[in-house]
Amino acid sequence: MFMGSNTSQFMKWAEAYFILYILLQPFLDLTAFLSLPLSEPVRVLSMVLGAVYIALTQNAKAKKYAIGYIGLLALVMVASFVNNVIFKDPFTLSIELVYMFKTVYFIMMLITYYFVFRSLSRQTHWKMPMQRYVFFSMSVIGVVMVLASLTGTGKSSYEALAKEGHSGWFFSGNELSAILGMGFAVMILYFMKKYELKTKLYFLPLVLSAMYGILTVGTKVALGSLVVILAVGTLIAWFDAWKKKQWANAIILPILLALTFAAVPVTAIGNNLGFAMEQFNKAGQLEEGAEGEGEGTGPTRGDQAKELLSNRNEFFNKVEGDYVQANVSQKVLGMGRGGNYEDVPKLIEMDFFDWFFNFGVLGFIILIIPILYFGYAIIKHLIVTRFQTFNSDTILIGLAVGLGLGTAFMAGHVLSSPASGIYLAVFIAYLYRLTKPKKHEAEPNS
């Protein structure tokens, strides 16, 4: 009885912690930028706490599958690591271990938040805490970006002098771009739910600060996400205005979208888009010239693709070559971070390809199982409920998930980056629970 009471208290404490953990993310990222040894220990301990929480959950069937999967994942990761100790040269222990931890972190957080939201969904107002904390996390990032610009202390997003943009007091511009791209969808959702105009005006400066951060970081991913989110939000707002006679969102969101387009030419992303277009056109002219001289296979072939992919194709070709030459065990279990590199282990920065080459066929299959399962389950939920759960919540959270997965595929820095991966894990688990048929909420094995 006493043990049961202690376990129940621990579970409630852990659930409260994991919801608060969402709000802690930008502060952990700030400590990483300041070289304070805090973010990594906290994330490691959070992953351990998640494992304990999963082990103590009362959902016997789901727990059995989760523990079985985690055990299989651990076995494959260890096998991959040992295989590379034997066959990979050079092999840097710290680099390989850190990369493996960062990859497993996303998976562990996804499973942990599945159980957290399953438990919290029994409460009446379970939906709002996550949205609220993401809103304020994005607000913290936006305010930091503004302060960094005002003081001129932001970390440059690019090494190239021709490109502009900074990541404020955060370590990585690419990770920040992914975070803002996903998180802004939830920020807009929370903003739209504030029906009183006075409250909206109170929160509006925070929304504008996040928009400023997106435009200032200078990446195409962030800008594309901003435009898509505001466009979708505008459509939802117009539908609500027609159906529910709520006009505030229908007026404010189109204005924010128009401001975005107006601001692009005078912000970092505008400069970078102009530079990218210039390089793209120049590469196209070189290719046309080469073809006109009968040099269809000359060095300029594919330069336009290189511009679109930000030279990721070069890293892809290098790692692909390593993979072709690797032995069978490395093809199955992967070549570790950066492949069989000679100098510096570089990622392709397209997460799914990095997963495949770094963890092999077997590792890739094991890693992608949770994403495929949740994707299948969410679609199934929508069909079973005849899209009754298809509303502003599921649309915008689904958009956040789609943008996160799209960013992972095209630009990387999500699935193996704890700072941004945590948001995608939270949003996938949250979307799963949002779309779950309500009649199954109280079932022990759902």
Automatic annotation (TrEMBL):
Transmembrane feature ranges: 16-36, 42-60, 67-87, 99-121, 133-150, 170-192, 199-215, 221-239, 251-270, 355-378, 390-409, 415-432
Keyword tags: Ligase, Membrane, Transmembrane, Transmembrane helix
InterPro entries: O-antigen_lig
Pfam families linked to this entry: O-antigen_lig
Top-level taxon of origin: Bacteria
A GO MF label: ligase activity
UniProt protein name: O-antigen ligase family protein
Natural source organism: Halobacillus salinarum
Lineage of origin: Bacteria, Bacillati, Bacillota, Bacilli, Bacillales
